[in-house]
Design a protein that fits this description.
mainly alpha; three-stranded antiparallel β-sheet; 9 helices; globular; binds zinc ion
Length: about 230
């Protein structure tokens, strides 16, 4: 990306970093918008497109756009920052909360897609997703895919320039800080640098789940085209 996502203000950030659709035939996810054009051949299975489907649920778009909106909010436009003094930037804390939610939604999105693919009934899915703790969710990931999440991420890191492992480790660190904030209640344990890291990591975190989708949820086909994701 030639321009830092921190500079994107006039265009919705989700339109830049969440533009992934899937082929209705094989399920392959790509950022190539041509997949939404009826008749355009899928780069993975070669089938004429029947119109693409969005890979991610609305919550992913909303979290990304909220992160962007709060980052560009001037302290004087925020009641909490204004109340605490002109140079306070407590409203930036919201970005940490949104980023944590983004990761949780991405993981749930993947788990739901996986369970739909293997036709687990809705009631059972609800039961399996009832516990929202990260440990339980990652346990479900392992039960479904047969792989530990960390192992799947490490395998994707090989031959990639995306640095998924670092982003996942950083995400875990951000979650710990967020939890600590709940007890300490001080913005200073977070800091603007971490907020900006969350924003710049968000496209990589999203791309990680695109890759996981393509590894675990795409129909095997003989005709494999170029990678666009
Ligand atoms: Zn396809």
């Amino acid at each position: 990306m030639s321009i830092s996502i921190l500079e994107i203000d006039r265009q919705r950030l989700s339109s830049v970093i969440v533009s992934y659709s899937t082929c209705k035939v094989c399920g392959y996810a790509t950022s190539d918008l041509n997949i939404t054009l009826v008749g355009h051949p899928c780069s993975h299975c070669g089938s004429p497109s029947q119109g693409g489907m969005l890979l991610f649920k609305l919550g992913v778009y909303i979290m990304v756009d909220l992160m962007q909106e709060y980052y560009h909010l001037h302290p004087t436009e925020s009641r909490i920052s204004k109340a605490l003094g002109e140079n306070q930037e407590n409203h930036l804390l919201a970005i940490i909360v949104f980023y944590c939610s983004l990761g949780e939604i991405l993981l749930e999105n993947f788990l739901t897609d996986y369970m739909n693919k293997i036709s687990i009934p809705d009631k059972v899915q609800d039961e399996l997703l009832r516990d929202i703790s990260m440990d339980k969710r990652l346990g479900l990931f392992r039960a479904l895919t047969g792989k530990k999440f960390s192992q799947a991420v490490a395998e994707l890191d090989k031959g990639s320039d995306k640095d998924y492992q670092r982003v996942v480790e950083s995400y875990i660190n951000v979650r710990e800080k967020r939890n600590k904030f709940l007890h300490v209640g001080n913005m200073f344990i977070i800091g603007k640098e971490m907020v900006e890291q969350c924003l710049t990591d968000s496209p990589i975190l999203i791309n990680l789940f695109v890759k996981l989708h393509n590894v675990f949820l795409v129909e095997p086909v003989n005709q494999i085209g170029n990678e666009n994701a």
